[in-house]
């Protein structure tokens, strides 16, 4: 299943025409790192400079923040992908991957202590080949995490059953597993919040126009994070994860120096998204695409299992709207002239409104008045029928998973 906290389980297992999916061609026409002369590289220091309280540097700081916002507008109206150099997550990367590598290197008997099937909140370890994208098994195993909160295992609003504690290996088995993951997810959520503020400014939207979807009176803010291992692909096929769009808000991806990730341009061509030292990769999910009526792009991307690179680890963090929130599109007249100009420039660069994608537009937007949690619940229960069988058959009929 695609790295989208199971939301991409709703991706059709056929093409838009209804035909069986074809074997993917993994050919790449270039690299996102150098695409458009490196315009997809944003520097966190440009954004954080805007928070300087020094009057002498105020003008320079504001200028740097405007550079950041202009770059953000350009990236989010074209590919929906960008590198973020020097993010607040960078100082935690080494410890995150140390713990991640140690979990996957541990004996199966230890990993079996935190199997997802033992969690009513869909947290924990999923073995190799357990998930699929477009009808084909993904070559990866993974551990899922979410908000560390008190569980609601029998909530009447079924999506609230996604809230609850995580599963961690105890410190005597793997020192620091819990503390490292919780520190990382806290900082990732803070970064997502700041990027959401940046998006409001880039759009020229009213304050709180986007933040309003991230919290609710029902105290059901939500995110998913995965730590993933793509093993050596020799003899196992070439699909790490098939083409998909993330179904949530923003994805913050920490990678290791191994190739495999690709993003699809509006032309339909694919380009590699290689690891960049000192940077995370950020992409928009379909809820941002929905709230902006498709003006901001949820990027189509995939991962191929390259037999020449050996094992590969990654750690995507998926920020999401609150489970009880309905994500309603913003009025178009609320968007700034700068944003409209960026959108028109992106449209001109691709030669019109036609955007080619291997994934149908809006496949994970959800119903017009549907709370986001219903979409999240539908996707995750389709992906993990064993968890449903054990914990949730009172609310999920057998034909629905």
From TrEMBL:
Family, per entry: Belongs to the iron/ascorbate-dependent oxidoreductase family.
MF terms (GO), sorted A to Z: metal ion binding; oxidoreductase activity
Family matches, as InterPro entries: DIOX_N, IPNS-like_FE2OG_OXY, IPNS-like_sf, Oxoglu/Fe-dep_dioxygenase_dom
Superkingdom: Eukaryota
Descriptive protein name: Clavaminate synthase-like protein
Cited PANTHER family: 2OG-FE(II) OXYGENASE FAMILY, PUTATIVE (AFU_ORTHOLOGUE AFUA_2G00750)-RELATED, OXIDOREDUCTASE, 2OG-FE II OXYGENASE FAMILY PROTEIN
Pfam families reported for this sequence: 2OG-FeII_Oxy, DIOX_N
Residues of the Fe2OG dioxygenase domain: 221-321
Keywords of the record: Iron, Metal-binding, Oxidoreductase
